[in-house]
Amino acid sequence: MKGDWPSVFTAWAHLQEVCQKLNCEIAVFEHGDATADLRRLDPIKAIHLAEELDVPDVLPVAFYELSRIFDMLDHKTQLYRSWFAQKLSQLSSRNLAKVMFGRISLRGRIREAVDSCPAREECPSVSICQHGLSRWWEVLKSESFYDTDPFLSLRKSVDKCGDIAEREVCRLCRLHTAEYLRTTRDQIWLKLPEIFDLTAVVSPDWGSPAAK
């Protein structure tokens, strides 16, 4: 189970990329087959198994994945939404509360984290770089907050830092911005147990490479 629901961000991100390449993200239900299993891993089933088999370290990612489904519902068919409501009824009220409150908490942390990213104070062209970053940052904020997968959105934003025009933001400020985003993403990921009220049950080193 730990391989399917990795606690280390890089392992989880790789798994998501594989799923996207295989076009397996809940694709079955888009074709009206409400009796088939999800092609991607089922977070509700994972939560039940983790509690039954005492494998709590998979819970933070399973809860996060489940919270993502809520964000995708507006784009899904009525058939899928009906199926999901039925699946959701299998959750205990305690776990449902963890998902709902955790989802709100996660979005709040991401909103706060990407509120602003100043240019390097030691930059000789700080006013120019700050102006250039501000325009780019507004687009980033909307993408990161409303994306159904904010962690992958932040990861893509790190790569996009290299696309900022050098005439608008100097190379060192772009590197500074990429590092800020990378650090922010990793810090929020490590807080998933706290966000979903699971700190008491997961390993103390959850999310670190040693926890694999």
Can you walk me through this structure?
- The protein is mainly alpha-helical and 212 residues long.
- The chain folds into two domains: 9-109, no CATH class; 114-189.
- The chain is built from ten helices and no strands.
- It has helices at residues 9-21, 27-30, 43-53, 59-72, 78-88, 93-113, 126-146, 150-160, 171-190, 192-195.
- Helix 4 (59-72) crosses helix 6 and helix 8 runs antiparallel to helix 9 (171-190).
- Residues 24-39 have low confidence and may be disordered.
Kindly list the characteristics that best describe this protein:
single chain, 212 residues, mainly alpha, 2 domains, 10 helices, 61% helix
Total of DSSP H or I helical runs spanning 4+ residues: 10
Mean pLDDT: 80
User: What sort of overall outline do the alpha carbons produce when their principal axes are compared?
Assistant: elongated
The structural class is mainly alpha
Fraction of residues in helices?
55-70%
- Secondary structure tally: strands: 0
User: How many independent structural domains?
Assistant: 2
- Kindly report how far apart the N and C termini lie: 11 Å
List low-confidence stretches: 24-39
Q: What can be said about the biggest beta sheet?
A: none
Radius of gyration: 19 Å
* SSE string: HHHHHHHHHH
Q: What percentage of amino acids are in beta strands?
A: under 5%
In short:
By secondary structure, the chain is mainly α.
Helix-strand layout with pairing:
Blueprint: H1 9-21, H2 27-30, H3 43-53, H4 59-72, H5 78-88, H6 93-113, H7 126-146, H8 150-160, H9 171-190, H10 192-195
Helix pairs in contact: 3-4, 4-6, 7-8, 8-9
